[in-house]
Design brief:
The chain has 97 residues and is mainly α. The protein is 33% helix and 0% strand. The chain has two helices and no strands. The protein is elongated and about 100 Å long.
Length: 97
């Protein structure tokens, strides 16, 4: 026949899966430090195998420009390009009424 099982009271400390405190903190801090060390080592390794490319900046004394069709910095042209219509103004001049 079915026997009745009595409920057994167990203290809360014995029921927990693990202890709180420093062991968990130590594991988290050590793994974070290990990840940072690996990151730094990979950055150093990546910079050591990177190809050496010269700078692509143009010196100020050079007459060459990267975009010869671009307007000069001292000039400003507000006219539309040839063959196109001037930009129309917006239809909503006063959005708050």
């Amino acid at each position: 026949m079915a026997s009745k099982k009595t409920k057994q009271e167990i203290p809360a400390i014995e029921v927990r899966p693990g202890k709180k405190g420093t062991p968990v903190l130590v594991v988290l801090v050590c793994s974070l430090a290990f990840a940072a060390i690996v990151w730094v080592l990979l950055e150093l390794w990546g910079s050591s195998i990177a190809p050496n490319e010269p700078d692509k900046t143009v010196s100020s004394g050079s007459n060459e420009t990267l975009n010869p069709g671009a307007p000069k910095p001292e000039s400003f042209d507000n006219n539309p390009p040839e063959g196109s219509k001037p930009a129309s103004e917006g239809t909503d001049r006063n959005p708050v009424r």
